[in-house]
Design a protein that fits this description.
With about 675 residues, this protein is α+β, with helices and mostly antiparallel strands. It contains 18 helices and 29 strands. It is globular, with a radius of gyration of 26 Å. The two termini are about 50 Å apart.
Length: about 675
């Protein structure tokens, strides 16, 4: 079953991916089924009536957590004569609930055998992703008078799927069935409950506070209504902005994930289907994107990442003292250390970005208490930058995995195997240092200096950090500048040789502030020039580079999140028109995806394809793509916290019309911002 005809509903890290009939027939390599905490709890879920499969008339993706399927028996040619219609209503809220309704449209009574085949392979999400289903434990089935129990055990690790129904059913080892008699124009319905149980080592219950059956839909609906009500309101003369904003808000609500230790507080999971868990980099960048709109996500993210900060040297997990985690998993392969994600620390950008987010959060909210609470974690992160990340000894952040079996080779955001290369296409040796991470380190030191001076009572440390940041900026601008191309190298190899290719990473350098002002204009020209800018957005790698491929994962595709930070960086250096150009392209692309920007899409020129071409295996929804429209709104309106109030300096793309953002929360209370685009960019004004 391909990605295009799948229906997806989710609530945090519990999600269902199925066919347009509601059926699930998973293979070991497809992310279809009912998943929770990185385990597939249903791999088969097939409804038949009198032994016949059902066909879809239509389906409704009602909310992110529920769907409805309208079905009839028989082939398409028989629909006009259908005497039965079947409705499947499904809700996921920690666990899974389905209501089946059957209506008899015939003039005479009818007897039906209604059956649901049910099974689970209890695949770990990593096993599905790697297309290797190698279960080392025991899968079992227990048939009870009033329920069916599917289970998997491996030592103290146990997962169970418990299926029951409000109507009397006959359970067997392969599912359950009902005998139904319907009079003319009569209907029958049954509610089916699927409970997921997860027991970790030592018998610890990992069910993450699941809602009680029958109430989850109402709870989720009320929660979504509160979430939307508390966020700022966006009105736009052209509906695409406000509709895309609303889609983003709803998807952010769907992706909220409550880690075990937080008692219901949430942070953004990275993306469906592969990354429905905590990611340091992804969660931090999503929080930076959404701060003006949903600041509560940042507080949770900072606290949990601080609590799980590295404290020792562990080669298997690529852990160092002070390092912020990359990824946390709860599945079988992590529990038995077949994967290092319990948690895994193999990223070099999450640690400086942690400090960046803490400062930006305080600038918006005035939450000094959290800055003081996380002082030691911030200092530990800064020590990691200086003491443990500089593998070569020249003052930069480098990476080289110590876990050579299952660790990540590339530990920057462009983490695919071939994302870092020289201009001739060859790959550099390790360790490697990518340019944007040096910018993050610079920004972290500048921001930490402010926190040290204003909140930690340590002006000497503040002075030291500012000296170190200035030295890093000077050194970086000397070592990374590609003189004949007039841009910054993507990376350095351990001998100092430049990976001299033109990439989107230069936009992150503008955002961090590490770029010498006299060089910023060249970068802006590159970012909206023909080699990097497709018309829809900035490509990850410039057209004409050896490894350029418009559908290469990090070598020519367009990543919406990447573009949002590039636009923010352009605004920082005063290139408002260029930022508006990028914002306009990405928001135009969003309309082709019904307002939901995917993880990535093709880097083909706009005039060639006329519409954005989706990357074939892109995650959707994905947190930092969902956050993109929110950061673009901030960028277009020029929203910046400034000495206790919100500064607004709008610059909209041509023809966008009026935009209102109402009730923007912050240390100033709640304020409104307005902007109007006019006929020419140089005449735009508030």
């Amino acid at each position: 079953m391909g990605q295009s005809n799948t229906i997806r509903i989710l609530d945090g890290n519990t999600f269902v991916v199925c066919e347009d009939t509601g059926d699930i027939e998973a293979t070991p390599s497809e992310p279809t089924g009912l998943f929770s905490i990185d385990t597939r709890f249903l791999s088969t879920w097939v409804l038949t009536v009198n032994g016949e499969r059902l066909n879809s008339l239509s389906f409704d993706d009602l909310q992110y957590f529920e769907s409805r399927f309208f079905l009839v028996p028989g082939m398409a040619t028989h629909y006009v004569d259908a005497k039965l219609s079947i409705i499947r209503e499904r809700t996921v809220g920690g666990s899974f609930r389905e209501q089946v309704t059957i209506l008899n449209h015939d003039e005479k009574p009818i007897d039906l055998e209604v059956r649901m085949d049910a099974a689970s392979d209890f695949a770990d999400l990593f096993q599905v992703k790697d297309e290797i289903l190698n279960k080392k434990g025991e899968i079992y089935t227990e048939v009870e008078p009033d329920r069916l129990r599917l289970g998997y055990r491996r030592g103290s690790f146990r997962r169970e799927t418990v299926i029951s129904s409000t109507m009397s059913a006959r359970y067997d080892s392969k599912g359950f069935a009902y005998t139904v008699h319907l009079e003319p124009n009569e209907q029958w319905e049954a509610a089916i409950h699927v409970e997921t149980h997860a027991v970790g080592p030592g018998g610890r219950d990992l069910r993450l506070g699941l809602r009680m059956h029958g109430t989850e839909r109402v709870e989720l609906q009320h929660d979504l209504e509160r979430w939307i009500a508390e966020a700022p309101k966006v009105n736009s003369e052209h509906g695409r902005v406000s509709s895309t904003y609303r889609r983003s808000l709803i998807d952010l609500a769907a992706l909220r994930f409550s880690p075990l230790s937080l008692g219901g507080a949430t942070l953004p999971a990275a993306g469906l289907p592969w990354f429905m868990t905590m990611f340091g980099r992804d969660s931090i960048l999503t929080c930076l994107q959404t701060l003006p709109f949903t600041p509560q996500l940042s507080k949770t993210t900072l606290r949990i990442l601080g609590a799980l900060q590295g404290s020792r040297f562990d080669d298997f997990r690529d852990e160092d003292p002070g390092r912020i985690l990359h990824e946390m998993r709860y599945g079988e392969t992590a529990a038995f250390e077949e994967q290092p994600h319990s948690p895994y620390y193999g990223s070099v950008d999450a640690t400086p970005l942690f400090v960046v987010l803490l400062d930006e959060y305080e600038r918006w909210t005035g939450d000094v208490a959290l800055v003081k609470e996380l002082e030691q974690e911030s200092r530990a992160a800064l020590r990691w930058i200086d003491n443990y990340a500089d593998l070569v000894g020249n003052g930069y952040i480098w990476y080289e995995r110590r876990n050579t079996d299952t660790g990540l080779e590339n530990q920057c955001w462009k983490d695919s195997w071939d994302s870092i290369s020289y201009s001739d296409g060859t790959l550099p040796p390790f360790p490697r240092a990518t340019c944007e991470v040096q910018g993050y380190a610079y920004d972290a030191k500048v921001r930490a200096a402010r926190m040290a001076r204003e909140f930690w009572g340590d002006p000497e440390f503040a002075d030291q950090l500012e000296r170190e940041a200035a030295e890093l900026k000077e050194r970086f601008n000397r070592d990374w500048w590609v003189a004949d191309g007039e841009f910054y190298a993507l990376a350095l190899d351990p001998d100092g040789r430049q990976c001299d290719i033109l990439s989107s990473n230069i936009g992150h350098l503008l955002w961090s502030g590490i770029v010498d002002p006299e060089r910023a204009e060249k970068l802006a020209a590159h970012l909206v020039g023909q080699r990097l800018f497709s018309g829809w957005g900035v490509r990850t790698l410039a057209e004409g580079e050896t490894r350029y491929n418009p559908i290469g994962y990090h070598n020519g595709t367009i990543w919406p999140f990447d573009n949002s930070f590039i636009a923010w960086g352009l605004r920082r250096y005063g290139f408002a028109e260029e930022a508006a150009t990028i914002a306009n392209g990405i928001l135009d692309a969003a309309t082709y995806f019904d307002g939901r920007l995917p993880e990535a899409f093709g880097g083909y020129p706009r005039e060639l394809t006329k519409f954005p071409v989706e990357y074939p295996t892109a995650c959707s929804p994905q947190a930092w793509s969902t956050g993109t429209p929110l950061l673009l709104l901030r960028t277009m309106l020029g929203l910046e916290p400034h000495e206790g109030h919100l500064a607004v300096e709008p610059r909209l793309p041509v023809g966008m019309g009026r935009i209102e953002v109402l009730d923007i929360p912050g240390r100033w209370g709640r304020v409104d911002a307005f902007a109007r685009g006019r006929l020419a960019l140089d005449n735009l004004a508030d």
